Inverse folding.
């Protein structure tokens, strides 16, 4: 039995608590939140204890989900690791690369699981398309959302685009040669729309567009490779394939069994804790995605245009 806790039960953390409370071989010990009334409410709902601080929780758990604002990831993550606790940190992993490096080093020194919550990796469509991609030549991603007024304390690159950057990096087996980007702040003081162009050393090119001021919600990934075009709709968890065979282009729709990505992510985290195996998205992968989006943000803020 793995004893777990959730630090931060806002719009994301509350679902960590919900899922942990229903997993086999997992005991949701307790939760922590800056809003004590909120903590009591969620603890009562999922039959666990509300702790006054995360430090009090650490004596009773083997692993924790950290779903607090990004600015607190490093402090809380490091405290948990130094108490020999396995951690799952919501994306982005930290606010700086230096902080990410310190967490990675601490986790590796203590042989602890350090997973980053890049949820889309556990989307059934992503899992399927990952097995279909062969030396992609061009990748296009779009992640658009209407303005909701939350997540605006960071650039859209850190809030939305980082999901697609992480997936693109997992699909392209090559170092990055160049990045160009443009974007704008429109309704907030941070970047609300961003457009990035990434060139890899092996010749593959990726174009990523993210916006939180779009009319409609859209989540789409297109992969172009030799004799094939793959189109993933994240929301439907469905892939449309156009494949050239015997001189003809054939269309096929593939729809894997739909699963809740967050549940799959937490199941994977618990398995890694049990087996001491490498997470699908470890601290290192989380850092690489952060490195790219921080550069994109810098380029946009510098006014560098494609």
């Amino acid at each position: 039995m793995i004893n777990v806790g959730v630090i931060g039960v806002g719009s994301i953390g509350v679902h960590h608590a919900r899922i942990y409370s229903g997993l086999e071989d997992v005991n949701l010990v307790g939760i922590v939140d800056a809003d004590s009334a909120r903590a009591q409410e969620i603890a009562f709902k999922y039959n666990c204890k509300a702790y006054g601080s995360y430090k009090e929780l650490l004596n009773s758990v083997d692993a924790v989900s950290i779903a607090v604002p990004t600015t607190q990831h490093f402090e809380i993550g490091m405290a948990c690791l130094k108490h020999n606790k396995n951690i799952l940190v919501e994306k982005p992993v930290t606010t700086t690369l230096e902080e990410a490096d310190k967490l990675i080093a601490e986790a590796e020194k203590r042989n602890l699981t350090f997973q980053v919550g890049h949820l889309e990796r556990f989307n059934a469509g992503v899992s399927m398309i990952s097995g279909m991609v062969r030396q992609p030549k061009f990748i296009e991603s779009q992640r658009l959302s209407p303005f909701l007024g939350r997540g605006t304390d960071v650039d859209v690159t850190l809030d939305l685009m980082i999901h697609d950057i992480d997936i693109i990096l997992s699909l392209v087996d090559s170092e990055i040669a160049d990045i160009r980007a443009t974007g704008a702040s429109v309704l907030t003081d941070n970047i609300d729309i961003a457009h990035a162009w990434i060139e890899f050393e092996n010749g593959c090119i990726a174009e990523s567009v993210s916006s939180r001021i779009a009319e409609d919600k859209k989540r789409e990934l297109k992969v172009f490779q030799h004799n094939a075009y793959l189109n993933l709709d994240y929301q439907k968890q469905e892939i449309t394939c156009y494949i050239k065979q015997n001189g003809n282009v054939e269309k096929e729709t593939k729809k894997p069994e739909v699963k809740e990505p967050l549940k799959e992510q937490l199941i994977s985290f618990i398995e890694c804790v049990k087996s001491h195996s490498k997470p699908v998205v470890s601290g290192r992968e989380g850092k690489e995605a952060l490195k790219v989006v921080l550069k994109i943000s810098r380029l946009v803020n510098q006014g560098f245009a494609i």
In short: DSSP finds nine helices and 14 strands in the chain. The CA atoms of residues 115 and 280 lie 8 Å apart. The chain has a mean pLDDT of 95. Residues 283-301 form the longest helix (19 residues).
